[in-house]
Amino acid sequence: MRVEVDEPKCVASGQCVVASPGVFDQRDEDGVVILLEQTPPAALHDAVREAAAVCPAAAIRLVQG
Predict the structure, then answer these.
(1) Are 16 and 24 in contact, with CB atoms under 8 Å apart?
(2) What 3-state class would DSSP assign to 9?
(3) In this predicted model, what pLDDT tens digit does every residue of 17-47 receive, in sequence order?
(4) Fewer Cβ in 10 A, N or C end of the chain?
């Protein structure tokens, strides 16, 4: 799995960080998502899927393969 984020779409809600703090963080100045791990280990895949599902701006894209 590869994770992609569309920073301009991010509304800084922080739901991704709550769901998967090992993969996502937020910039201090504006709260926009920071992708910490573009290819997270399999153990984190469920949390990353949850983060993508709860993102109110649909700014997280998951690419299989």
Answers:
(1) yes
(2) helix
(3) 999 999 999 999 999 999 999 999 999 999 9
(4) C
Under CATH, what is the fold of the domain 2-63? Alpha-Beta Plaits (3.30.70)
Q: What CA–CA distance (Å, rounded) separates 31 from 49?
A: 20
Helix (H, G, I), strand (E, B) or coil at 52: helix
Q: Answer whether 13's CB lies under 8 Å from 26's CB.
A: no
Beta pairing, strands 60-63 & 33-35: unpaired
Q: Which of 20, 17, 14, 16 is nearest to 44 (CA)?
A: 20
**Long-range residue pairs from 25-33, CB within 8 A, at least 24 positions apart, any chain:** 32/7, 33/5, 33/7, 33/59, 33/60
Q: Over range 41-61, report the average pLDDT.
A: 98
CA nearest to 50, candidates 62, 36, 38? 62
